[in-house]
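Risk register update: the risk of archive-format incompatibility is retired. Evidence:
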Amino acid sequence: MFRTLDDLPADLSGQRVLVRGDLNVPMADGQVGDATRLRALAPTIEALAARGAAIVLLSHFGRPKGRDASQSLAPVAAALGEVLGRPVGFIADCAGPEAEAAAAALPPMAVAVAENTRFHAGEEANDPAFAAAMARLGHIFVNDAFSAAHRAHASTEGLAHLLPAYAGRSMEAELSALEAALGDPKRPVAAVVGGAKVSTKLAVLKNLAAKVDHLMIGGGMANTFLAAKGIAIGRSLAERDMLEEARAVLAAAEAAGSTVHLPWDAVLATEFRADPPTRIASVGDVGEDEMILDIGPASVENLADTLKVCATLVWNGPLGAFETPPFGAGTVALARTAAALTDAGALVSVAGGGDTVAALAMAGVTDRFSFVSTAGGAFLEWMEGRPLPGVEALRR
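Archived output:
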């Protein structure tokens, strides 16, 4: 369905490859705070360099309004060089005669980062003229930025129509994992959807209700579903204006033969802070002044037992207020069960989204899931069942 680096010639000498990466990394005082996205690019860069190609990396960085020196990719180019253990050059623009000349001067196997694509208004507008100007920097286009694939921008979508286009190693791994999770999964399929608000994940819930066998809802959004079922939830976080939408999700799941799992019991407290007095009670026994802040042990056991009969798991969002102890216990316990089942070869586990990555890291299981996506918006839109422009442009 997608051309990958394996479809490229073994000898790329004399060829310049434009690689759309995601270099939008956290920076403080000129230093990269988290190099995860830089490390993710290494396999693609190394594979292309091994074939003799010169590599020009394209990326956005931040949200500049025009050219802004504080949003330059120059410091990121230096950090990428440290990750790769090889020199990485910097090209002071990503389009135009000077950028073309700098790209043309690169020797085989050289790597250079071009300046922030968002310095040009044509990037976010997906302007064909700007895409064509960038295309003149190279001969081949490789997209290795799944995290930006939900945006129809010139460097993510436009270029793929102007040059022979391929998926990089990180993009290939992401697409393979997503296909295994929801495209053509082994059944039964379970989905964990957590987080604070139903409103931010309503489209995800509606899509999954029709596709999975078990829909496990946790976090603050579970409180909205409990309220929609007429259960008193005290002072718990909930969206009272979303009760009808919650009922619609429950009805859609029932019509599709999908089982919805809501918490049976919960960890309750009268104040939301680290390590307050807590009690565990049935969700039908929440006091007027109490808040549901995590799923309880009986709920964890129910979900764990369900996972043991499933073949595929897709996970987005924590089951409680995991960043505030002790309200991460439910998320950690279920994540460790999923990791153990994955270790045993009984479960294909795919997870994604910022809070999810942090929660799995807290549980110490990031490396034990089948695949953990660092993409935020793109992963959510994929879970909603929406086509991603940067991916669609790569289809054969």
